[in-house]
Amino acid sequence: RYMLGEDGRLHTYTAVLAMRLDALPALPLPLFNGGAPAEKDEKTEHVQVYKNGGVGALNDMGTAEAAVRAERWAWVVVTRKPNELRTYVNGKLCASVKLEKPDKGAAPKPAKGKDADAAPKAAALRERFVLDPAYLALFPTAEAGEGDAPPERGLSVKYVHVVAEAWKPSQVAEELFKLRSADEEADVLQEA
Questions:
Q1: Are the beta carbons of 155 and 140 closer than 8 angstroms?
Q2: What is the rounded distance in angstroms from the CA atom of residue 79 to the CA atom of residue 175?
Q3: Global pTM?
Q4: Cβ-based neighbours of 186, under 8 Å, separated by 6 or more
Q5: How confident is the model at residue 122 (pLDDT cuts 50, 70, 90)?
Q6: DSSP of the chain
Q7: Please, are residues 177 and 167 in contact by the beta-carbon 8 Å criterion?
Q8: Contact (CB, 8 A) for 140 and 49
């Protein structure tokens, strides 16, 4: 059950991914964005894995103590609530990014009267990192066109889950413990 904002998108959520990289990225690796493909000349912001292994956004690369390591499974948790996005790697806080509300002064004023049809339309104000329930792009690439194979990345994903609440740090630890325990149990059963 999702509580969508006035714009029809999810503003408060927790996303959980279990992922493994063969090597840390040389350039920031987009983890996800929560909207449809960008319009021409529109910039899409991503939660990213940086070359230090940190998971963050808006150039907040996170800490070395809580980072994705090459050739190891990592449980990445992203929580978003109004004005804040947090990332966790294996239950440790990696980055805490303050989000500002969109600047209402940035949108052009709509024209009135006979000039209304010829005037540029006011741009919709977009909050950062909100999710469109119809479109979630995991590891999106700008290089790949429709129908193209994505570039080779040495990336594995075994779990993705999104809930419509921003977990508190204690919930992150508790839920990851449950998930990791269930994952390890499944691995043992599979090997038997």
A1: no
A2: 13
A3: 0.79
A4: none
A5: very low
A6: -----TTSSB-SEEEEEEEEESS--SS-EEEEESSSPPPTT-----EEE-TTS-EEBTTB---TTS---TTSEEEEEEEEETTEEEEEETTEEEEEEE-PPP-GGGSPPPP-GGGTTTSPPPPPP--TT-BBTTB-EES--SS--TTPPPPP--EEEEEEEEESS---HHHHHHHHHHHHHHHHHHHHHHH-
A7: no
A8: no
Asked if 23 and 170 touch (Cβ cutoff 8 Å), the reply is no
Q: Residues for the chain: how many in total?
A: 192
Buried b (16+ CB within 10 A) or exposed e, 100-136: eeeeeeeeeeeeeeeeeeeeeeeeeeebbbbbbeeeb
126-to-29, 123, 139 alpha-carbon distances in Å: 23, 9, 21
Instruction: For residue range 40-62, list pLDDT tens digits in order.
Output: 766 778 899 999 999 999 989 98
